[in-house]
Design a protein that fits this description.
binds magnesium ion, 261 residues, binds adenosine-5'-diphosphate, 39% helix, alpha/beta
């Protein structure tokens, strides 16, 4: 059985949109026909259940880390997308305990025949290095200096762990005082993987418990998420055709001119 391609959504700061990105990314990939599991590994402020309107059966990720709870006992399904979800639960246990549990739990998670596993995480990088077999780190930041500075630190951590990773700038409002994507790319020295706008579709969809990529398919945010999902799926070596990512005009023109396939 092939291992799933696992994506860890991370940031040093809270409130930048990790859960919004993780939920919508996993939903888009699942809706494209890939067997996908979304794990809410945020044991400080678990909120995947709130975003998706799925309720755990009294147990979730913390129990998976702390005890002999099996994955099948904590996995629920999201109706609209078929996405499998391990809802988050809060854990008061010491970090070392959770880190050990995380290693064991992710070994089980990786053996279930999923094509993709997406981990939402707590702010900071506490448990990331104990998630075994991370294929890709998605660092989420807001377009301001403190968030950028902390993202650079996380970028270095993924680099040290030799985990390929990319930056997603979320909640772009186009204000003069914001860090522009070009400035970020210039300072970062690499292209960002995604640029997502501040979009009412996100809080509206949380209020309605249906991910923006389903409830507001053509919103700026959803189009941006489909681009990020297509990039992640392509990085995994699988086809991203079914994602329906918005066409980049330059590559569309090149393709129409027969210069690029
Ligand atoms: N692109 C966006 N546009 C508008 N609001 C957003 C966007 N991304 C996140 N939010 C809002 O920001 C808040 C925090 O988002 P969340 O995804 O829970 O962040 P985190 O998981 O990093 O703490 C939520 O209320 C959400 O509605
Ligand atoms: Mg969150």
């Amino acid at each position: 059985m092939a291992w799933p391609y696992s994506i860890v959504v991370a940031s040093q700061k809270g409130g930048v949109g990790k859960t919004s990105v993780a939920v919508n990314l996993a939903t888009v990939i699942s809706s494209a026909g890939y067997k996908t599991l979304l794990v809410d590994a945020d044991t400080v402020n678990p909120s995947v259940g709130i975003h998706l309107g799925v309720e755990g059966r009294g147990k979730g990720c913390a129990e998976l880390l702390d005890s002999r709870t099996r994955l099948r006992d904590v996995t629920v399904h999201h109706g609209d997308s078929g996405l499998a979800v391990v809802p988050g639960t809060m854990s008061m246990s010491r970090q070392a305990h959770s880190a050990k549990g995380m290693g064991r739990a992710t070994n089980e998670i990786m053996n279930q025949g999923y094509d993709f596993v997406v981990f939402d995480t707590s702010p900071g990088s506490t448990l990331i290095d104990s998630i075994s077999r991370v294929n890709y780190g998605l660092i989420v930041m807001s377009p301001d200096m403190p968030s950028f500075a902390s993202s650079i630190r996380l970028d270095a951590e993924f680099g040290m762990m030799k985990v390929p990773h990319g930056l997603v700038v979320n909640r772009i409002r186009g204000r003069r005082y914001e860090l522009g994507v070009h400035d970020i790319e210039h300072e970062y020295g690499k292209k960002v993987l995604g640029a997502l706008k501040d979009d009412d579709a996100v809080p509206m969809s949380i209020a309605n418990h249906t991910p923006a990529c389903i409830a507001h398919r053509n919103s700026h945010f959803s189009r941006g998420i489909r681009s990020v999902a297509a990039a992640c799926v392509a990085n995994s070596g699988r086809s991203s055709d079914a994602i329906g990512a918005p066409q980049n005009n330059v590559s569309l023109i090149k393709r129409l001119l027969g210069r690029e396939r």
